[in-house]
Amino acid sequence: MTNNEAKPQGRGTTLLAVGTKKGLWLGTSTDRSNFTFTGPHFLMHEIPSIGIDARDGRTRILVGLRSEHWGPTVAHSDDLGTTWQEPDQGAISFPSDTGAALERVWQIQPDSEDRPGVVWAGCEPISLWKSTDGGEHFELNRGLWEHPHRSEWGAGFGGAAAHTVLPSPADPNTIHVAMSTGGVYRSTDAGESWEARNKGIGAYFMPDPLPEFGQCVHKVARDPNNPDVLYAQNHHGVYRTDDAGDSWKSIAEGLPTDFGFTVLTHPSRSDTAWVVPIMADGERIPPQGQLAVHRTDDGGRSWTRLADGVVEPDYNVVLRDAAAVDTAEPAGVYFGTRGGSVYASANEGGSFAEVLSRLPDVLCVRAAVVEL
Q1: Cα dihedral angle (155, 50, 70, 218), rounded to 10 degrees?
Q2: Residue 35 within any structural domain of the chain
Q3: Which of 7, 111, 205, 218 is most buried when burial is the number of CB atoms within 10 A of its CB?
Q4: CA dihedral (255, 337, 280, 155) positive or negative
Q5: H or E segment at 142?
């Protein structure tokens, strides 16, 4: 096992965080089938993003909030949601010279174990932010904000989202960001400059179906052992890159459709990834009206359909961040639907149990093995 390889954890307490259109639910479990939940926290707040930071022997929960009255911010809790804190002036605030205001926090991503305190956020309008104090205060990344492509980035169906932030565990200077719409961008100088990295990813809705940028990438996930290997779920298209995004190839063969919103990778084993197919952009239901997860164990060469325990029929979809894996062995897989169901699997998707039902629309799901 290399120094950069993810290390699986034991079957301690699993923390499951579920963000919805109308609040946050927090659950704990020792078997990943039976959870004890608290909530709703932040009732009537939209919760589009959650980060669980289990570094340095503590468990900090960070949530991106959006209130129709008070607006968006980031709050954090160090006691499993008993109390919450946020800076008086807000954790994320655009500098006055940008002429911009925060609309939504789409992504909260703690960095690697060896970079304690560093937390990243992807926001709307499309922007990248970095915190060095555990997510209490964030600073705008000027390199991406001032990129010459920015004026041509558009809003996806859900908004102008910087929805994926992937710092490389092997190199602190390398960061990948994905946005809708805009595609995948990579920095190799700690965020000072950025280059579009979308070769091979399609955009059938544009005049050039293979443009340099402008793709509607829905989600990207990184291999746990080789940081140059990433998987992408696109607006029609499932892809893999073996060269950190310099080129992408389709791995959609064997899936019922190539449309979907989320992609997950195994926390410790290479070549294992999960997607949740949807019929099409104009037909946003699961194939044959039955929700199912699909897993590859060979890097995308083949796929296995997984739906044991999922209610039939189910015409709901899983949004881009409404799915997660934990770091136990075997890995746990979790997802939530727009119909308010939350499913958990303790065996990598082999079977699922519905652990919550009839919630508001599920926007974000995060899971981690923690010490209480």
Answers
A1: 10
A2: yes
A3: 218
A4: negative
A5: helix 142-145
What is the amino acid identity at position 8?
P
- pLDDT tens for 217-275 read 999 999 999 999 999 999 999 999 999 999 999 999 999 999 999 999 999 999 999 99
5 assigned to some structural domain: no
Question: Residues 191, 128: contact at Cβ < 8 Å?
Answer: yes
Sheet of strand 304-306: strand arrangement = 259-265, 273-278, 293-296, 304-306
Q: Is the pTM of this model over 0.70?
A: yes
| CA nearest to 41, candidates 15, 4, 76 | 76
CATH code where residue 102 lies: 2.130.10.10
Q: Give the Cα separation of 209 and 194 in Å (integer).
A: 22
> Strands across the sheet with 353-356, in order?
323-325, 333-336, 342-345, 353-356
DSSP codes joined into one string, 196-207? E--TT---TTSS
141 assigned to some structural domain? yes
- Asked whether 206 and 152 are in contact (CB, 8 A), the reply is no
| Dist CA 131 CA 119 (whole Å) | 5
Number of domains forming the structure of the chain: 1
Report the chain's terminal Cα–Cα distance, integer Å.
Answer: 27
Exposure b/e, 103-117, CB count within 10 A at least 16 = b: bbbbbbbbbeeeeee
Cα 302 from Cα 2, distance rounded (Å)? 27
Separation CA 159–CA 14 (nearest Å) = 32
| CB 129 within 8 Å of CB 121 | yes
Task: Summarize pLDDT for 128-176 with one digit per residue, the tens.
Answer: 999 999 999 999 999 999 999 999 999 988 899 999 999 999 999 999 9
Helix (H, G, I), strand (E, B) or coil at 98: helix
Q: What is the pLDDT of residues 105-127, one digit of tens each?
A: 999 999 999 999 999 999 999 99
User: What is the span of the domain harbouring residue 188?
Assistant: 13-370
Q: Does residue 323 surpass a pLDDT of 80?
A: yes
